[in-house]
Automatic annotation (TrEMBL):
All copies of domain Glycosyl hydrolase family 13 catalytic, residue ranges: 11-381
GO BP, sorted A to Z: carbohydrate metabolic process
Keywords: Calcium, Carbohydrate metabolism, Chloride, Glycosidase, Hydrolase, Metal-binding, Signal
EC class name: hydrolase
Membrane spanning residue stretches: none
Residues of the full protein shown: 118 to 586 of 818
Name of the featured protein: Alpha-amylase
């Protein structure tokens, strides 16, 4: 079952974008385990290009592989293994972002982050090794210049070069085995699954063949796979082609939740089957990702940490809602420069993530996942597993609903709410997750409660059966 994240039924992961392995391990131990996170998505961990020409150390250098050695700005294999073990010990799994559609871009040459030499223009990657014969060529790619330039044609999207990146031919047994060998190595080191980069640019059957060459986890079961397929009703490739392979990223959710956060009247329709959106059991959902938060990868007009109030509303709603498997984005601050890499020291090593007295991060790290309406809603998502939305109410810029008889959630766009509402929950005293229990809610014998929201920066309230008191 490629859709099983292997985290004891927990329901949300966080992408610690560009974090060092040592910091991820610290975060598992000091925060993620206690808060009930299922796991962490890392940035690509295998050897890649060191870019210093047109730009110095952009984040996207990681998307130009040089070999499958574990050697990245986040750390080496020893540090990786240490992270996986320390996280697993506190119930948090690791999912690796794997870049297998391509190797480095044409024209790039030199040494990768692990010291392997390479020369893309000659298709020479001795660290694997891959050579010319392992890449797609003009016979298979129908575009005149060999580049992906027609999203209406699957042969063009999948057999041509994406922004000049040397495109591997996953039809070949040799190529499949090299990639599966990389996955198997990661499984031996204890990971629980993979985010497959640029899955849209590979044939689903080829990816499935690689998945079949991949071993089961030591504790049993196939690894978790979620496939990056950007389907915004704008091309020939559809998310449902990838259902046999696991979950699929649902980028239309990013569009819908952005509209909903700005206009609560649209929140009822964030899952729109009429739009072709993946069903809940196949959808992998997120408010923004590392690409579209900076205008890459089908981006534009997404809600991000740059508008914190709307962002908290959007992510809290995603976690309270009953659609898909959610990923929380955790970013570093950046300005107008969409290439800017992570916070770094003068030698370009990545800066430590520091934790301030208020529990938020320093040194340039945003740590959205530590914002109360985000981090504390993970417990809500876990507590309401298996229930559906009931008692939905949507009027005057206010939305509220229950999840079965397990949890109740409310938000007020204007920042204030003062209503008596049916919660569907057993009578009792509950406390609000968003304010860390500073606010109490009493549910009476008929399930009604007086709901007050009065914090205009975080105009959200949530409580669960079995929650803190
Ligand atoms: C992805 N998903 O399908 C990643 O989420 C996305 O971040 C990757 O693009 C992309 N696919 C390829 O893995 C990023 C970034 C691009 C960047 C590539 C490769 O968005 O801008 O392209 O990584 O590093 C860069 C340059 C581009 C150049 C290319 C090849 O920006 O101008 O094209 O390298 O040298 C000539
Ligand atoms: Ca391809």
């Amino acid at each position: 079952d490629y859709t099983d994240p292997h985290c004891s039924g927990k329901q949300a992961i966080v992408h610690l974008f560009e974090w060092k392995f040592s910091d991820i391990a610290n975060e598992c131990e000091r925060y993620l385990g206690k808060k009930g996170f299922c796991g962490v998505q890392t940035s690509p961990v295998n050897e890649y290009t060191v870019i210093t020409k047109e730009y110095i150390r952009p984040w996207w250098e990681r998307y130009q592989p040089v070999s499958y050695k574990i050697a990245s700005r986040s750390g080496n294999e020893v540090e990786f293994k240490n992270m996986v073990d320390r996280c697993k010990n506190v119930g948090v799994r690791i999912y690796v972002d794997v870049v297998i559609n391509h190797m480095a871009g044409l024209g790039r040459t030199g040494k990768g982050t692990g010291g392997s030499s390479f020369d893309s223009s000659n298709y020479d990657f001795p660290g694997v090794p891959f050579s010319r014969q392992h890449f797609n060529d003009k016979d298979k790619c129908p575009s005149h210049d060999g580049m992906v330039n027609n999203y209406g044609d699957p042969n063009n999207v999948r057999n041509c070069f994406l922004v000049g990146l040397t495109d591997l031919d996953q039809k070949q047994e040799y190529v499949r085995n090299k990639i599966a060998g990389f996955f198997n190595h990661l499984i031996d080191l204890g990971v629980a699954g993979f985010r497959v980069d640029a899955a849209k640019h590979m044939w689903p059957g080829d990816i499935l063949a690689i998945q079949k060459l991949t071993k089961n986890l030591p504790e049993g079961g196939t690894p978790f796979f979620y496939h990056e397929v950007i389907d915004q009703n704008d091309g020939a490739i559809k998310v449902n082609e990838y259902y046999p392979n696991g979950l699929v990223t649902e980028f239309r959710f990013c569009q819908k939740i952005a509209q909903g956060a700005r206009n609560f009247g649209e929140l009822g329709g964030v899952y729109d089957p009429g739009w072709g959106m993946a069903d809940s059991d196949h959808a992998f959902v997120f408010v923004d990702n590392h690409d579209n938060q900076r205008g890459h990868g089908g981006g534009g007009n997404r809600v991000t940490h740059k508008t914190p109030r709307d962002y908290k509303i959007a992510v809290a709603f995603m976690l309270a809602n009953d659609y898909g498997f959610p990923r929380i984005m955790s970013s570093y601050y950046f300005g107008d420069d969409s290439s800017q890499g992570p916070p770094h020291n003068s030698d370009y090593s990545i800066k430590d993530v520091t934790i301030e007295n208020n529990g938020l991060c320093g040194n340039g790290w945003v740590c959205e996942h530590r914002w109360n309406p985000i981090g504390n809603m993970v417990a809500f998502r876990n507590a309401v597993t298996g229930t559906t939305k009931v008692h939905w109410k949507d009027q005057n810029d206010q939305v509220s609903f229950a999840r079965g008889n397990k949890g109740f959630f409310a938000m007020a766009k204007q920042g204030h709410m003062d209503e008596t509402l049916q919660t569907g929950l057993p009578a009792g005293e509950y406390c609000d997750l968003i304010t860390d229990c500073k606010k109490k809610i009493t549910v009476d014998g008929s399930g009604n409660a007086h709901i007050v929201i009065d914090n205009s920066e975080e105009p959200i309230l949530a409580f669960i059966v079995g929650g803190p008191s």
